Amino acid sequence: MRVLVVHAHPVETSYSAALKDITVDELAKAGHTVDVLSLYDEGFEAELSREERLIYHDVPDNLTPAIAPYVERVYASDAVVFVYPVWNFGLPAILKGFFDRVFVPGVSFEMRGGKLVRTLPPKKKVAVVTTYGGTRWRAFLVGDPPRKVATRVFWTVFQPPRPVQYLALYDMNNNAVPQLEAFKDRVRAAMAAF
Predict the structure, then answer these.
(1) CA distance 39 to 43
(2) pTM value?
């Protein structure tokens, strides 16, 4: 499969970057063609501009030269893996901006006769590799919004035949080296079997 790996972390020496590297390496070893989209490295502009919002519903004019290459990469992929940290119980702003700017009408959906119609071809598989600073219990108390976004919203957008695979390390800041390494091994195994 052609797998698009979308990474969202600004520090190249971060644990998240290490998880991205493991993801890419294991997918490649398993024989997949991997397209790495590191949003920070590519200088992706997360902010939806005034002009983009004004033409948001104007298909196909809303497919601006700034977002067209990203749309092509999404369409060219058979599967998608997202690697990012959870910040403030949400997606990093740059990843949220990726969805706001790239998944516009005509790309992932259209309104026809007042009804939403999906236009993005389904992906064979979608996975998320993420880390939380807080504990699983703390996330549970607030409903774990990041998990819901990944397992519900991503599933709706990409329509894979199986649920979104969600690999999360909670309480990352308090995990010792053995727990951090164990999560890396979990990611290795999941991507090898992807």
Answers:
(1) 6
(2) 0.95
